[in-house]
């Protein structure tokens, strides 16, 4: 028992040490982004980050698809919107309370003021912006792969903007992106099954399999006539008829 306890303790120690090292890398990347001058990118990324607040960017794209994309666009818009709702609920209700990670200290990291956006009051891990963006792109890409690919690039830009503006660590957006991608795929897959199940549950009397269709009057009449011909073969020829009976030899 002592050896097992020692082995378990050493495994926990190694895992804790690995997490500390990953945290150090995470903070180092954050500080590197904060300290790198990017004057031409600061304003566009700040605006992009603000446009994605409350999923406004994705909902606007969904509205455009619903209006101009026809039936396929409306179906994709519904999928994307449902995926955003499911992912937001998962991240904000189930995941964020488990890891009460504080937001980065932008002043300590030296994030320039021209980059900054309003600091959210929620916890930092994982990024809701990244999760919503990738969930929307994954759900849209189910029917429209090329549009889904383009939206994933846009979602990646939104996710990076959250680090660039100083409100998230890099690990926040990585985990948020993975959660959003997997949730979007799951939601799209579930919605694919809904029309199929509705088609299978057809009310009685509306449609029947081809092999079990009821015969109409015309088919009954045809079947009855065929039965009469088979069950009642023609009888002998009328004696007054000069033509010979079928199969009889002609008289000399």
Pairing-aware structural class of the strands and helices?
mainly alpha
- Tell me the β content: under 5%
How many helices? 9
General shape:
globular
Question: Separation of termini?
Answer: 118 Å
Flag low-confidence runs: 196-243
Provide the gyration radius in Å. 36 Å
Order of helices and strands: HHHHHHHHH
Fraction in helix:
55-70%
Would you tell me the overall average pLDDT?
Answer: 81
The count of DSSP E runs of length 2 or more, i.e. the number of strands, is: 0
Q: What about the largest sheet?
A: none
Mind explaining what this structure looks like?
This protein has 252 residues and is an all-alpha fold. The protein has a domain of 146 residues. The protein is 67% helix and 0% strand. The chain has nine helices and no strands. Helix 6 runs parallel beside helix 8. About 19% of the residues have low confidence.
Keywords:
252 residues, mainly alpha, 67% helix
Give a topology summary.
Layout: H1 2-35, H2 39-51, H3 56-68, H4 70-95, H5 106-109, H6 128-140, H7 145-164, H8 170-200, H9 217-231
């Amino acid at each position: 028992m002592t050896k097992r306890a020692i082995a378990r303790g050493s495994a926990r120690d190694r895992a804790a040490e690995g997490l500390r090292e990953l945290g150090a890398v995470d903070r180092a990347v954050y500080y590197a982004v904060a300290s790198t001058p990017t004057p031409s990118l600061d304003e566009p990324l700040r605006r992009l980050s603000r446009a994605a607040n409350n999923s406004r960017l994705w909902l606007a794209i969904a509205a455009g698809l619903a209006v101009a994309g026809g039936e396929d666009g409306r179906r994709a818009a519904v999928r994307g919107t449902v995926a955003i709702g499911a992912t937001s609920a998962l991240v904000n209700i189930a995941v964020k309370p488990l890891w009460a990670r504080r937001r980065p200290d932008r002043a300590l990291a030296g994030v320039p003021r021209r980059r900054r956006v309003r600091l959210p009051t929620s916890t930092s891990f994982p990024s809701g912006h990244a999760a919503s963006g990738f969930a929307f792109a994954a759900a849209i890409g189910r029917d429209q792969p090329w549009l889904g690919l383009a939206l994933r690039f846009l979602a990646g830009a939104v996710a990076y903007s959250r680090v660039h503006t100083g409100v998230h660590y890099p690990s926040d957006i990585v985990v948020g992106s993975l959660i959003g991608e997997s949730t979007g795929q799951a939601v799209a897959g579930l919605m694919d099954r809904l029309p199929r199940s509705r088609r299978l549950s057809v009310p009685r009397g509306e449609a029947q399999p081809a092999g079990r269709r009821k015969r109409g009057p015309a088919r009954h009449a045809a079947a009855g006539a065929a039965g009469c011909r088979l069950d009642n073969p023609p009888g002998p020829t009328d004696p007054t008829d000069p033509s010979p009976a079928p199969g009889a030899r002609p008289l000399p």
